[in-house]
Design a protein that fits this description.
By secondary structure, the protein is α+β, with helices and mostly antiparallel strands. 44% of the residues lie in helices and 19% in strands. Belongs to the NrdR family.
């Protein structure tokens, strides 16, 4: 890390702390040349490969925006969307890959969105699973109905 004061090519880490959300590390550094102190913030990068081939950084806001469109007119709050976006990011990061296809992110949204709102799920699924006929919608609705008909397991006491 170059010193921002004298441009010396090295610095010494004095202190490291994890951020509140656990996604970044704040490091306090000191330059051995001029003695200047400065802070850096380090995060693990996650890039999205778009259909066009363009690579851009992952954005929770874009996940929320896509889900928000599917949830338009539904009883879903911004807090619900923020939790959904966090869940999607955690799922994507657990793959261990630093680059992921945009379509894979869309598919990762489906599970949490299905739990959040089934109508929004159907709207979103029609795009990301490329529904092209009424049969595709009927099949997805059939799966949702089958899940509702399955008996729920009760926790063991």
């Amino acid at each position: 890390m170059h010193c921002p004061f004298c441009r010396h090519a090295d610095s010494r880490v004095i202190d490291s702390r994890t951020s509140d959300d656990g996604l970044s590390i704040r490091r306090r550094r000191q330059c051995p040349e001029c003695g200047g102190r400065f802070s850096t913030i380090e995060t693990a990068s996650l890039n999205v490969i778009k259909r066009s081939g363009v690579i851009e950084p992952f954005s929770r806001e874009k996940v929320m925006s896509g889900a928000r469109k599917a949830c338009q007119g539904r009883p879903v709050t911004e807090a619900d969307l923020a939790i959904l976006a966090q869940s999607v990011e955690e799922t994507v990061r657990q793959t261990g890959s630093s680059q992921i296809d945009a379509n894979d992110i869309g598919l990762a949204i489906l599970g949490p969105l299905r739990e959040l709102d089934e109508v929004a799920y159907l709207r979103f699924a029609s795009v990301y699973q490329a529904f092209d006929s009424l049969e595709d919608f009927e099949s997805a609705i059939g799966e949702l109905r089958a899940d509702h008909d399955r008996p729920r397991r009760r926790p063991v006491e």
